[in-house]
Amino acid sequence: MSVPPPNAGIRSRRHAPSLILAVLGSCGIVVALMQTLVIPIIPELPHLLGASAANTSWAVTATLLVAAVVTPISGRLGDMFGKRRALIGSLTLLVLGSAVCAMASSLIPMVTGRALQGAAIGAIPLGIAILRDVLPPKRVGGAMAVMSATLGVGGAVGLPIAATIAHYTDWHMLFVVSAVLGCACIALTLLVIPESPVRRPGRFDFLGAVGLSVVLVTFLLPITKGDDWGWASGQTLGLFATSFASLLLWGFLELRTAAPLIDLRVSARPPVLFTNLASVAVGFAMYGTSLSFPQLLMAPESTGYGFGLSMITAGLVLAPGGLVMMALSPVSARLSAWRGPRVTLMTGAVVIGLGYAVAYVAVSAVWQVLLAGMVIGAGIGLSYSAMPALIMSAVPITESAAANGLNSLMRSIGTSTSAAVVSVILAGMTVTVGTAVIPSLDAFRAGFIASIIASMVTLVFAWLIPSPRKDLRPVDEERGVEDGGDRVAEIDEQIHGGTPGVEVNEVTPDASASARRAFHLASRPAETSPRTD
Questions:
Q1: Residue 234: how many other CB atoms lie within 10 Å
Q2: Rounded distance, CA 519 to CA 15, Å?
């Protein structure tokens, strides 16, 4: 089999790695902003859209469901047709959804637009996969840490920004601003981001995509609506049963598909499996702050534990927690390089638990809530930055986007479960102040305990992740290419000709794989020589 020259078909992109990271990070933050975009106007939506509160809640539910379904699909499309193309497609959906919402005055257009906005969340795992493919090896760890943190940062800073816009302007401006930001991200992506040369062509698994959609919708829908329908109602239990049965059937079919949407065999590898399970628990712990802290800060002072803050002020108090996530990304990368991402994930779990412990014993002043939020944010930042590194080192490079999409899906399942559990806790333990019924202090503390338990579960799953030296050297059996962490990074750099941020055009995956293998064989130490790497 002939091997193409290292720079065959390459069109150089001279943009610095820091600029590539800045653009992808901005895309991630803008996409994550969609999570909290409508929170300030939720109480007013029934009046604004002329619908019941139960129906207007679909403005949030639709975003959640579509994001969960589309994330792994966009990752697979990125691996097949190009991650940059898939990223632009995700951002285009965000712009279209924002435009629909900006012109909406009734329920159906609003829900439709919010669903389109939710479909853009796949931009974050796509961005992580692009960084692996186009950056120099030494920059990949820190860059992935920053990109992964954008999910938490966008959600944290989005609340005060959205609240301010909604308070001082017409509510439609929320979506005008998001559309403008989306267009800016598309333009920057076209100008700065190179297309990854790594592809895995094949037929798209439409049956697998439909099956996964059924599994996720029938699972997440009763979780998000169970409090309204009743957890023991036939509708809720029936959907859970349908989800379980669909999961079994979908898994059976995926294992017999030549090019599955999600490679379950790769996903069952212990490093991938336990990282994804830890992601569910981290997602649960992260969302606890989004539910509990704003309500605690806005509770009336007459309760004896509330602070009576406005939504804008409460959002500003919580925003530093998101900024800490981003600030700790370089620290997380250094810790992962020193002790491994497994240790970083375990450290993040411990820090999250400590943050919630602080919230449990000391929330008698606003600064204490701020401190607890920052400690939790630090733990989330450490955990979120470690998970892509664990996933990337355990899957073939041709499946990086799909694998990161699945990992993001696991986080979404965790946040959805947290929303259901913590909402039940807060709704079940209340006090009446005037005509308002609000959660009691014991309810908030019970929610903190639930998140502490989630952080302990994260710690257990992180501890179960096998040692990298033994298990994190997966082999792409189809191509015969070793993918061993730093080693594959060296191979990638050789293929890119040592030039950061290049775009490879017209290079087939087979040729790319052949080049990797040729370089690997040529540079492998002799069998009789001791290992030095």
A1: 9
A2: 26
Residue listed under structure tokens 């975009």: 37
Q: Give every CB contact of residue 97 below 8 A, 6+ residues apart in sequence.
A: 112, 113, 114, 115, 116, 117, 118, 119, 120
| Residue at 54: amino acid letter | A
In order, the DSSP letters of 367-379 are HHHHHHHHHHHHH
Residue 124: which H helix or E strand, with range?
helix 123-134
Separation between Cα atoms, residue 291 and residue 310, nearest integer Å: 15
Q: What would you report as the CA-atom Rg of the chain, rounded to the nearest whole angstrom? A: 23
Given a cut of 60, whether residue 196 has pLDDT beyond it is yes
Contacts of 260 by beta carbon, 8 Å cutoff, 6+ apart: 205, 208, 254
468 falls in which pLDDT band (50, 70, 90)?
low
CA 443/CA 421 separation, integer angstroms: 12
Give CA–CA dist 420/405, Å, rounded.
23
CB 375 within 8 A of CB 359: no
Nearest to 37 by CA among 160, 167, 181: 160
pTM (predicted TM-score): 0.76
CA distance 182 to 89: 11
Contact 182, 238 (CB under 8 A): no
d(CA 177, CA 174): 5
Return d(Cα 62, Cα 43) in angstroms, integer: 17
> pLDDT (tens digit, 9 = 90+) per residue, 94-119?
999 999 999 998 999 999 999 999 88
Average the pLDDT over each of 101-115, 138-152, 506-520 and give the range with the smallest value: 506-520
Instruction: Identify the CA nearest to 143 among candidates 468, 341, 335, 389.
Output: 389
- Interior CA angle at 405 toward 400 and 262, to 5°? 75
Give the tokens for residue 403: 């694998």
By percentage, how much of the chain surpasses pLDDT 90? 27
